[in-house]
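To close the section, here is one more complete example, presented without commentary so you can practise reading it yourself. The ligand is alpha-D-galactopyranose.
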Amino acid sequence: MIKNIPPMGWNTWNTFAEKINEELVLSSAEQLVSSGLKKVGYEYVVIDDCWSLRERDRSGALVPDPEKFPHGMKYVADALHKMGLKFGMYSCCGGMTCASYPASLNHEYADARAFARWGVDYLKYDYCFKPSSVDGKALYRRMGTALSGCGRDILFSGCSWGSDNTHEWIGTTGANIWRSTGDIVDTWDSVKSIIKQQYAILPYGGVGCFNDMDMLIVGMHGKGHVGLKGCTDDEYRLHFAAWCMLASPLMIGCDVRNMDETTKEILTDPVLLSIAKDERGNRPYFFHNWNNDDWTIFVRLLANGDIAVGFFNLSDSGVDLWLSADDIGVPDFSGKTLSGVEAYSGASVRAVNGVLSKELAPHSCAVWRLQVKNK
Ligand code: GLA
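Output:
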């Protein structure tokens, strides 16, 4: 089924990788509820790779690892549904998952039926160990068909990292979201590189099949599986703002049981979430000022006629960015001007003489939700 807004939730991979179990998943889910994250939209709890035994059983079925998930997956699904959350799982189109657990190649229909029986609402589908003799798109179409007929509405999350020109065929597979890049890690360079890889593929996102820029690293601070160096809070702010502006899924990757207040504030910023969840799904576009592609302005027309504008300074020096209202459809002769509110700070902003401008520190951003008003 078409999803009008990109999914939001939490995924086990970034922090926990193979160290997952029922207690971790359900206690993190409880935290999503009690911290208020569920209330603002984070509703999918996704168990990533490493949840099964290393072998299928004699009938060919995937078996949840009884040490990690002693009550099985239906139990986890029921518990999540009782909390008002949705349940996501993971498999792969190759013979094995990326961490070498059994995957769905040639088991697509049986696995889709099992996921439906267990109460799964979301399937992340990876691209490792894909036989070179078979087209990835054929395998994704196979799982897309299997999910469509499995009797349950399961969001299909393609994860082929943009390989094999994914953007050209992913919309034909039934996928609701598609991973456009390799894996994120918790460093500034990783965030910057993923943002810069989006320029060329902005036309391939939005309602129908959202472009997935990978799980969030906000609040990881160097801890956990993809932890590495960590980022500053300003870098996390910019990261989250870019994912919202570009309508990426928002899957939290930090340990939500140990979040600091700043992390929570970033993940729940009301201005950014109103942009991320805009149902019209108009495509964002961008400007590079002065031919420097580290100084980027993303713009998105929203459902009610507001305009989201984000100034992003990906460079290592400060910069004064500006944008003419005329360039985003509001010329001076229209008698209209722009004013609105800034994400994170809540400050008011308005165009002065038809121009929006802002001085930005290195690795920082300013995002506004602007209304088009009479002068
Ligand atoms: C791939 C995916 C990641 C994660 C791992 C699990 O690398 O891109 O998001 O799911 O596999 O092994």
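Once you have examined the tokens, check your reading against these statements. The radius of gyration is 21 Å. Residues 13, 48-49, 97-99, 126, 159, 161, 183 surround alpha-D-galactopyranose (CB under 6 Å).
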